[in-house]
Amino acid sequence: MSTTDTTTSFPESDTLGKPPYVNINSQATSLRQPSPMPEPKRPGQIRHKSSIRTGDTFTTPRDIEKHSKLPYFLRMHGSITPRMLVPLVFIGMWATLITCISEFVYELVVSDILLTVLGFVVGLGISFRTSSAYERYVDGRKFWAQLSQTSRDLARHIWIHVDERHEADPQLGKADLLGKVTALNLILAFAVSLKHRLRFEPYAQYEDLQQLVSHLSTFAGDAFDPETSELKPKTSWKRGGEYLGLTFAESNPRKAIKRSKKNLGNLPLEILTYMSAYVNANVKAGVLPGGVQEAMVMANLASLNEVLAGTERVLNTPLPIAYSIAISQITWVYVIMLPFQLWHALKWITIPGTIVGAYIILGIAAIGREIENPFGRDENDLPLDKFCEALEDELNVIAARKPPRMEDFIASEDNAIIFDSNYSSLSMKSTEDIRAGLRARTNIRAGLRSQAGGHATGEKVEV
Q1: Nearest CA to 335 among 65, 19, 95?
Q2: What is the pLDDT of residues 3-32, one digit of tens each?
Q3: What pTM did the predictor assign?
Q4: For 276-311, how does the pLDDT look when each residue is reduced to its tens digit (9 = 90+)?
């Protein structure tokens, strides 16, 4: 694969103010700068379309950075109310029919004992359904937190502990630097590709992933076929049906996988293979010290593989279908029997009473179904897109500065080591004086806090 020329424009001096403009035209770019204008769609690139054209307010995972002043009972984003409209309309019509028959034709009354017995069974089944679904949701969040932690550790180890041989050979040093940035890009590529894999998006041509893996030879990249990989846009009826929770309107989430004519491989696993090859090459070249550092880097790669296996376990091990069917049937039997048991005591109030009871019972069951797969695009799913963006920002922060040297920050004049005494002043004192200052610091700090009512003061103290 041919690569284009790289043009980089940097300011002459490192000044505070606007960040330098970086124009990189290579597909194997290191830092992906956001463009002020929408980028044109590349040939063979897959772009996701919004599931409903009224916006992302009700159709995407909740943005945890946004704040709503509405009380919880008035909020719609994340609510299961839209998915309850059709069942509640049906239950309302059913309750009206039973109430009218009981009032004008014949009393259809069932003993309250059935309500008590079925209520216990329904409560037990819904509790099991919801607790198992929430456990899967928590497991998914734990694995993604492990991915974030491991990615930070791995990026830090690579950026600090992989040497750059600028003194031996400027070209080797430049190659080492570009290799380290490429390794950090692969860490981000692993997270983004895992996000797509968990959403049954098996290719490498997605707009947030293609630039990161276009230089790699992967099964997912080779299997892409524009004729079979591009899914047809959903009609308005289908989008509306999915929004209302109608099962007959839901598409098979594995449709893209089934339509592929080639082996799709496992893109996150292939990226881990390339990262292992990078580590192996650095160990052989002697730029990554063996022993502890090598072991920690390999342990981080093993942790990423553990995240891959764990998230796949959460995704591919739903609640057994027998439990789901039985709980759904028991719940609906209970709701349908409600008007028979409420009419004798409530009369016409049976209709709203049945609707309220159905909303409570069916709503809790619907929540369990929605959070069972935490990796999708529903409102209550994990915001994986935000997690990947946050990881990208953190990796860019690590790569923004060259690896710090110990003497640069320890011997700094601004390093107030003990109170207001900096490195240069303390270096003129004896070791015994420094240790005496450390012993005295505990009592001085406690005294200053007590004088300030529990808060440290700004009074200057020198050793």
Answers
A1: 95
A2: 444 444 444 434 333 333 334 333 333 444
A3: 0.79
A4: 999 999 999 888 887 888 899 999 999 999 999 999
d(CA 10, CA 321): 59
Nearest CA among 27, 5, 9 for reference residue 18? 9
- What residues are paired with 35 via a beta bridge? none
Query: Which of 69, 75, 114 lies closest to 344 in space, CA to CA?
Result: 114
Q: How many angstroms separate the Cα of 405 from the Cα of each of 16, 160, 392, 410, 412?
A: 22, 10, 24, 9, 11
Nearest residue to 385 via CA among 202, 155, 192, 214: 192
CB within 8 A of 154, min separation 6: which ones? 187, 297, 300, 301, 304
Whether the predicted pLDDT of 364 surpasses 50: yes
Smallest Cα–Cα separation from 233: which of 43, 57, 48?
48
Provide the token pair at 351. Answer: 């209709």
Q: Please give the structure tokens belonging to residue 442.
A: 């505990």
User: Token pair of 148, please?
Assistant: 């974030």
